[in-house]
């Protein structure tokens, strides 16, 4: 058992160290209104986001920042047209000209937060100071603690449900060594659930763990679906504790648990599993009822297998060889085979539902993690096959060889034997009783030798089985860790759907380039800020603003702009910018080839002073 705890602890530490990066969310942004990077003649009334699945809103789901980085007063966040896959915020009636930054953070239907930012401009683009203050994305410590607590919850439910199922279905004669294992699972699940409940508010807000104890943090958590499900899980732990007592003190005939335990145990396990299924991937996307049922079966099969392995390993280590019948191991072997069948069927369905296509298996992060998990499962099945082979040999090995007692020597009849002669004299004739005694001693010696050989063979089989089960449990812990990471990764179906949509949020559709210039006169330094929309081959719109040395907007008498592609000896293409009264623009620039183009800006600041400067513009295909 000590080795198992060490291996599980090592896996947990690796998971903790690998969990410090920002967690991937599951609802992907597919559209924004207005479009990200767009320039509008007048301020919009709303900002609307559309996602691949339903999202929950927070009090601070939107932060709208003006060009100076100051927060704009907005209305309360809500859904657009009662569509749960949207988020909308109302803007003030009048917004000054310039570029505005919208930072957003919502909670996807599978309980994971999603965040990002977008920009839009009113009248003309401008410099903005908002990029440094778009709000939190995720606190690394909070994310690591939350992921660790989720892994511990998965492991704990396996240690709670698995040993109970092992006792009920495999019927070991003395389940006492398994009480501590189940109690560890119960206490660990209690601690992990409390930790998840406390960390829920800072996890959603992207803040540090200390904010969990802020005013109203826990109250707000309990009003959300993930918080309510965690509270239900805590409530279910009380009847689970009461049920452990009769399970590990078997009653009824043949050492079976009583009828009350048999009737209440499975529904309680299903209810516990539902607190996971109703809060994660299964609760969002297509075929939700089927997905929830599949998720419940998948989790219970995992718990029965992994927890049963821990129970078997504990019995093999702490139970004498003569006290553990081979039938117990055989029953668990059949139970494990049934669990593997359930895992295979539900796993295939969940993989199809999460991926959506074969290409997502290799083109998405979710698919890569799934392939890694399948490799680990293959190793797990190999270890399980070895355990089954050693299990098949146990019934042929008797637990204890029969003891053979030598018969008492028969009393001698007839006249008494003469006294023994001196060593140098003739040897006496051996009597029948002496022969009987020697034969009995030889038989005892032979049977004892056979017993020693049988016992040695039994010990060898038990040691081999224990090693195999230990390997199986260690690989199963790794599979459990990969499962935890998978539940924190965008499903391939959602990632592919978001990629097919117009690129919004993280990847701006417009290409922004700054070109510094210096005329060489007092006040003659500044920057030309170009926005090329969409920044791809074909027709593009160009907006340009002139920024002074201190970053403020300024006007110039003339601005000319050309594009060239030196690698293909193409250009210069004159953009023919038009003065729009504060900024320059055109909607008719055609860039036929992808590559790094040279943008040459000629700025005239007076009747006699002008300068040309160049910048690099990346144009995608």
Automatic annotation (TrEMBL):
Biased composition (Low complexity): 396-407
Signal sequence residues: 1-27
UniProt source species: Streptomyces ziwulingensis
Biased composition (Pro residues): 408-426
Keywords: Cell membrane, Copper, Membrane, Metal-binding, Signal, Transmembrane, Transmembrane helix
Source organism, top-level taxon: Bacteria
Compartment(s) where it occurs, according to its Swiss-Prot or TrEMBL record: Cell membrane
Membrane-spanning intervals of the chain: 151-169, 181-199, 228-248, 260-279, 291-315, 335-352, 364-386, 469-490
Protein name stated in the entry: Copper resistance protein CopC
Predominant place of localization: membrane
UniProt membrane topology term: Multi-pass membrane protein
């Amino acid at each position: 058992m000590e080795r198992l705890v060490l291996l599980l602890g090592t896996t947990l530490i690796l998971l903790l160290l690998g969990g410090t990066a920002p967690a991937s969310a599951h609802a992907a942004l597919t559209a924004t209104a207005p479009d990200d990077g767009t320039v509008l003649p007048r301020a919009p009334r709303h900002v609307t986001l559309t996602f691949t699945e339903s999202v929950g809103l927070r009090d601070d789901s939107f932060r709208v920042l003006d060009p100076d980085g100051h927060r704009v007063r907005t209305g309360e966040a809500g859904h657009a047209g009662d569509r749960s896959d949207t988020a909308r915020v109302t803007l003030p009636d009048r917004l000054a000209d310039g570029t505005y930054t919208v930072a957003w953070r919502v909670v996807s239907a599978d309980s994971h937060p999603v965040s990002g930012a977008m920009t839009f401009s009113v009248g003309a683009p401008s410099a903005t100071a908002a990029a440094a203050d778009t709000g939190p994305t995720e606190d690394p410590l909070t994310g690591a603690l939350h992921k660790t607590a989720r892994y511990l919850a998965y492991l704990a439910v396996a240690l709670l449900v698995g040993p109970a199922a092992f006792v009920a279905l495999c019927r070991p004669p003395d389940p006492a060594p398994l009480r501590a294992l189940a109690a560890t699972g119960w206490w660990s699940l209690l601690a992990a659930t409390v930790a998840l409940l406390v960390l829920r508010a800072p996890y959603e807000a992207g803040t540090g763990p200390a904010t969990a104890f802020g005013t109203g943090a826990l109250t707000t958590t309990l009003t959300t679906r993930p918080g309510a499900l965690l509270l239900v899980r805590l409530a279910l732990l009380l009847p689970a504790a009461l049920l452990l007592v009769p399970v590990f003190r078997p009653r009824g005939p043949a050492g079976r648990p009583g009828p009350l335990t048999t009737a209440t145990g499975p529904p309680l396990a299903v209810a516990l599993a539902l607190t996971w299924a109703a809060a994660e991937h299964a609760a969002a996307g297509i075929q939700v009822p089927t997905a929830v049922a599949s998720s419940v079966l998948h989790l219970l099969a995992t718990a029965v297998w992994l927890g049963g392995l821990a129970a078997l390993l504990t019995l093999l280590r702490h139970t004498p060889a003569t006290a553990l019948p081979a039938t117990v191991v055989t029953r668990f072997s059949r139970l494990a085979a049934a669990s593997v069948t359930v895992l295979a069927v539900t796993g295939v369905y969940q993989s199809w539902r999460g991926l959506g296509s074969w290409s997502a298996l290799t083109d998405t992060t979710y698919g890569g993690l799934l392939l890694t998990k399948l490799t680990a499962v293959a190793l797990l099945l190999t270890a399980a096959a070895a355990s089954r082979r050693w299990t098949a040999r146990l019934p042929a090995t008797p637990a204890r060889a029969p003891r053979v007692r030598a018969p008492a020597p028969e009393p001698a009849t007839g006249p008494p034997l003469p006294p023994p002669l001196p060593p140098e004299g003739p040897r006496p004739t051996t009597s029948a009783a002496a022969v009987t005694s020697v034969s009995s001693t030889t038989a005892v010696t032979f049977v004892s030798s056979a017993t020693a050989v049988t016992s040695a063979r039994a010990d060898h089989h038990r040691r081999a089985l224990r090693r195999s089960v230990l390997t199986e449990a260690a690989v199963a812990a790794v599979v459990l860790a990969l499962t935890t990471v998978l539940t924190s990764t965008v499903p391939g179906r959602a990632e592919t759907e978001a990629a097919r949509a117009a690129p919004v949020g993280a990847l701006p559709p417009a290409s922004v380039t700054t070109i510094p210039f210096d005329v060489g006169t007092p006040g003659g330094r500044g920057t030309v800020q170009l926005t090329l929309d969409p920044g791809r081959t074909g027709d593009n719109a160009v907006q340009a603003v002139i920024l002074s040395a201190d970053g403020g907007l300024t006007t110039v008498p003339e601005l000319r702009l050309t594009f060239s592609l030196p690698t293909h000896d193409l250009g210069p293409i004159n953009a023919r910018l038009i003065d729009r009264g504060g900024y320059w623009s055109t909607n008719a620039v055609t860039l036929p080839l992808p590559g790094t183009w040279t943008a040459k800006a000629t700025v005239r600041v007076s009747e006699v002073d002008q300068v040309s400067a160049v910048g690099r513009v990346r144009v995608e295909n």
